Each structure stands twice: as structure tokens, then as C-alpha cells.
Amino acid sequence: MARREADAIPLSRFGVLVAQLQSIVVSARQQTPDALLCFDLLSELVSSVEEENKESIQQWQRKCEDALYSLLILGARCPVRRLASIAMGRVIQKGDGISIYSRVSSLQGWLADGKRSEPLSCAGVAHCLGEMYRLFGRRVTSGLTETINIAAKLMKFNEDFVRKDALQMLDKALEGCGGSGPSTAYSEAHRIVMRVGVTDKSFIVRLAAARCLKTFANIDGPGLGHPELEGSIVYCLKALVDPTSSVRDAFAEALGGLLALAMNPEAQVKRVNKITVPARKLEDNLQKHFILPFVKVELEMFLDAFYVCYLR
Known about the structure:
The protein has 312 residues and is mainly α.
């Protein structure tokens, strides 16, 4: 009798959507999933997570996570992989949070595999891993070094959207972990951004690199010494003449954060063991890198105008 009553319990909306998602993934071998269908289904799935209770989410959580993971590996387009990543995070947040460790490990393992070279799949998995760090960064800080190594690998792809997602993943990992990771990991992350990110041919990659520099400033520049900090400031100034306005704006925001950090060395060394740089030396950088260049530009503009008037 009790068994019949249990069977009579209607399937939750969340459970129905997970079952539909599973069906799409299983049939993907014969037919490529329709992007619009996946987008609508994932939109409903994200909304249903907010409506379901924790017990109902936990009942379907593992199946949901596996289906979302499989969808990302299949090579979902940008809107779909974005929603799939959001759904993954929401489900783990509201369900059993312990699964974050195994899920991050599986995402890292897939990306670290040297045979993985499908651009759409790599971009999707990287996007999801970045979302996991954004939401649970403090809990998975131990994997930060591996994630940064993965970002370096993805920056070698020819597809600019993969390089962009690699830097966005890096940005979210820095933000999520704050300054709690190992100093060497932050140093390597900064090296990736400065050596290949800020000089990339694609403006979407340079934009992502600028946001990484801003995040470094927001988390007090862990792992960065005075040379790295000054080098970042110098490049941000150079990037203010970038041909793309959104890139110029992003580097301007990063410049402001880095200069503020340079003027407050006590904040910078708070979480990292390194020699304190005298405050006066850092304050000189405000005059050197911010005030003088603009004074010079104004003077050159005045001289150009005077020269034109003199010729007339």
C-alpha cells in the first residue's frame, strides 16, 4: 500500500525538465541538439530550481549535473553553455553542496586531458568551471593552480572565443578565491594575462584580459611585486589608445584600481608574504604614470594649436 502511494506522487517540474534534458543528451548521438530547444529548456530548469525545495533538488541533482556536463561536452553554443553553467551552479547551491568538489575535479580533468581539442566543448567546460569558482571559490582554492595551468593551455587555441573563455574562467577563479590561494598561482595567472592576454589580436580577448587586471586590483594584488604592478599600470596606459572603445574603458577601470592599490602598499601585502615597498616610491607612480602623461598630452595639443595659428 505504501509503495502504491509513493508511486502515485507526481513528478516535480524540476524532475520532468531533468528527464527531458537527459533525453536530449542521449539522442545527441543520432541528432545534434537543437540550440533553441536547449535554451528554452535550460531557462525553465533555472527557474524551476528556485521553486523546488531542497529535498526535491537532491533527488534529481546527480542526474541533472551529469546531463548538464554531457551537454557542455557535446559543444553547446554560447547562450546554451552560459545557461548550462548557471543551472549547474544553482543546483549545487540549493542541493547537496558537497558535490562541488567532485564536479570541479571532473571539469578540470576533462580540460586537462591533452586529447581535448574541440573548441566549443573546451569553451563550454571552461565557462562552467569559471562559474563554479565564482560561486564556490573559497571551497575549491586547492585546485586554483591546476585551473590556471588549464587557462594557459586554452590560450593556445586559434579560436578567439576559447581564449576569451579561458581568461574569463581565470578572472572568476581569481575573484572567487580572493587572496587565499598560493602566491605562485597568482604570479602565474598574472604572467598569462600580461604575456598573451593583453596583446591578443582579438578585442574580446583583450577585454577579458583587462578585466583580469581589474580583478587583481580588487583582491589586493596577491603574488604581485612592485615590478609586476608597475608593468601592469604602464600597459594599461598604453591600452588607452586601443581602437575598440570597450577595451579602452576596461583598461581605464583596471588602471584606476591598480593605481589605488599602488598608493596603498599596506593593503597589497596584507595576504602575501613579501618585502614591503616604501609608500613614497609607489606614490611617485601616480605622478609618473597618471598625471605627467596627461599634462604632456595637453601641452602637445597647445603647441600644435599655437603652430597652426602661427602658420596662418
